[in-house]
Every structure is written in C-alpha cells, then in structure tokens.
Amino acid sequence: MDSQFICQCHNIQFKNRHALTSHIYYYKHREKVRQQINTWHNNHSIELKERYREYDKTHKAKYHAHYLKNKKTLLQSMSEYYLNNKEKILESRGIYYQNNKENIIKKNTEYAKTEKGKLVVRLVQHNRRVIPYCSKLTIETIQQVYENNIKKYGTLTCELCFEPILFGEDSLEHFIPLSRHKEFPHIDLNAPNNLGVAHSQFSKEKCNLYKNSKTLKEWQSGKLK
C-alpha cells in the first residue's frame, strides 16, 4: 500500500522491482541520503571539478554545435525559467556571493588584468550609457578596432597624437564623443568608423583626457593653431 501510494503521488512507472525499492528507500530517507551525497561531493570536489573540465573539453564542439542549432529555443527557455523563478534565483545568487565573496572578488580582479578582461571592462563601461541610435559595443568590435590600428601603424598607436602607446596606457576613443550624441542624431557613435585608440588618462600624454568632449576635427584644428 505504501509503495502504491508513493508511485501514485509521483506518477512514476518503474521498470523493475529494484528501481521501485530504491525509490521507496530514497523517499523514506531522503534527508539522510541528500546529506550523504553532499558530504561525498565536498570530500571529492577537486576530483569532480577536474573530471567536469576534462568532460567539457572533450565535448566542447558537440555542446557548441547543439547550442548554435537550438540557440533561439534555448535562450527563450532560459528567459522563461528566469522570469518564473526570478526571486529564487536572485536569492540563491546572493547567498552564493556572500559565502564566496573573497574568492569571487579575487578572481574578478585577476580576470580584469587579462587582455580579454580589459575588453570586457571597457565594454561594460561604455554600454552603461544608453544612447539613441547607438548599437551596443561588443568584444568583437573592440578587437577589430585594435587590430586595425596595429595593421595601419605597425604597433599600437594613439590616433590623436600618432605616438606609440605603452602597454596598459591605451583607451578606446570615440572620435565623435558619446556626450555629443544630440548634435549628431541618427549616427551610430559605437560603429567601428567612429572608434579608435588613444592614450588613456593614466598615461604621460593623456590625449583621451585632453580631447575631452571635442570631436576629432575640433581636436585636430585646435592642435594646428
């Protein structure tokens, strides 16, 4: 009677008696079983992480192909899940952050020092400003701007003073500044043809800082005077 009741509650059909017995045992002792599973995972966390990494590496191409094939459906499903479980997800994220705060900050700081991390930081900073007619900056766009600069000058060069830029002293430059977007309606200020590379405010030259809200033409005419 007990096993029939459990099956009816969970609407489960079992292939054999062993599967039914296992389910009944779990149902009766689930708190104990969950605790044992968590303890085992904690004791083997490093080994499991390595296994997951190896598995992900060997199946990366397969995952990517599946994602591209089902991208629209997957994104829609993820969006629906988030909307239906928003409070639970945010609460879970908050708890995880508080429990791993120091480690998260350390990893984020280390990532921000890498080349890709720097691009992401620039991307976030620029996309914080929502401006009409401006597309969102992407990592690919920023990489294209930097690659074009190096191809044109042979080395990373400031497009305001035309002097080489030392490592870590570069900044993304808008030839028509984002702050002047009202004067240039219907122009995508985040398009590659309006982007360049310049000396940052942390460099000796500080070209990006001195240019301030001037357009490239205004900057060049001011330099010639």
Q: Which characteristics define this entry?
A:
elongated; mainly alpha; 4% strand; 12 helices; single chain; 225 residues
Question: How far apart are the first and last residues' alpha carbons, in Å?
Answer: 96 Å
Nearest-integer average pLDDT: 84
Structural class label = mainly alpha
DSSP helical segment count? 12
Radius of gyration: 27 Å
The poorly predicted ranges are none
Order of helices and strands: HHHHHHHHHHEEHH
Q: Main sheet, how many strands, which sense, barrel?
A: 2 strands, antiparallel
3D shape: elongated
Q: Helix amount, in percent? A: 55-70%
Q: Tell me the strand percentage band.
A: under 5%
Number of strands: 2
- Identify the strand order in the major beta sheet: 1-2
